[in-house]
């Protein structure tokens, strides 16, 4: 099976198992999604959602974030890993959006990655989930692990993995592929002991026997 057919099969099988591929982060606005995504680095979505439930009630507008007292804002997110740096990035992004983008979260990759704390992965998440724009494929730790195990890439660098996946996946499915691999990585194809018995991709996975022997 060639790579493009393989990806189509993977998408079909995973969509049956996870019929609603979307981000697990709770957010009502593009900026809330930006803030949640920045906070989610090296933190679980469940924990981030717990923190942002209170955060989003306290800070309603981008200006609220920009004008919040730094010490108080840090305290509001202090249970998150690397909270000081993340809090600073969120506030500086809010100020930059107000000053340079007319108070609206930008809708292009080029503009988004100029914001503090927003790299390509975060920008992809914002573009696809907030604006319905498929500019690329968000490669997190799960996407990286599964794309390697499934033989979709031989690279370990996220940028090269993204390029490999984009080349073999229909553009309209770029966001879906990322979400589906993340769901499957969390639930079945976990890092240390993949649950082969419950894996809908078992028959087409080149790593099924290698991983069993470990």
Structure description:
This protein has helices spanning about 5-15, 30-40, 45-60, 60-65, 70-75, 85-100, 110, 120-130, 140-150, 160-170, 175-185, 210-214. It has about 210 residues and is mainly α. The chain folds into two domains: about 5-20 and about 135-214, Helix-hairpin-Helix base-excision DNA repair enzymes (C-terminal) (Endonuclease Iii, domain 2); about 30-130, Orthogonal Bundle (Endonuclease III, domain 1), CATH 1.10.340.30. The chain is elongated and about 55 Å long. About 35% of the residues are buried. The model has no long low-confidence stretch (mean pLDDT about 95).
List strands and helices in order, with pairings.
Blueprint: H1 3-17, H2 30-40, H3 45-58, H4 62-67, H5 70-76, H6 83-100, H7 109-112, H8 120-131, H9 141-149, H10 158-168, H11 174-187, H12 208-213
Helix pairs in contact: 2-3, 2-6, 2-8, 9-11
Would you kindly provide a brief summary of this structure?
With 214 residues, this protein is mainly alpha-helical.
């Amino acid at each position: 099976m060639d790579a493009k057919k393989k990806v189509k099969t993977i998408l079909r099988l995973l969509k049956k198992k996870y019929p609603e591929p979307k981000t697990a982060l709770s957010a009502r606005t593009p900026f809330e999604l930006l803030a949640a995504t920045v906070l989610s680095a090296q933190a679980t979505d469940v924990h981030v959602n717990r923190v942002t439930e209170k955060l989003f009630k306290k800070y309603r507008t981008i200006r609220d974030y920009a004008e919040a007292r730094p010490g108080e804002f840090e305290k509001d997110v202090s249970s998150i890993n690397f909270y000081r740096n993340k809090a600073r990035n969120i506030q500086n992004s809010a100020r930059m959006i107000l000053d340079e983008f007319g108070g609206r979260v930008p809708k292009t990759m080029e503009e988004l990655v100029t914001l503090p704390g927003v790299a390509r992965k975060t920008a992809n998440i914002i573009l696809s989930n907030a604006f319905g724009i498929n500019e690329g494929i968000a490669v997190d730790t799960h996407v990286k692990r599964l794309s390697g195990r499934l033989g979709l890439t031989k690279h370990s660098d996220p940028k090269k993995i993204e390029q490999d996946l984009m080349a073999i996946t229909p553009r309209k499915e770029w966001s879906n592929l990322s979400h589906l691999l993340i769901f499957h990585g969390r639930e079945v194809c976990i890092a240390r002991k993949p649950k082969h018995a419950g894996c809908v991709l078992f028959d087409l996975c080149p790593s099924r026997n290698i991983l069993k022997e470990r």
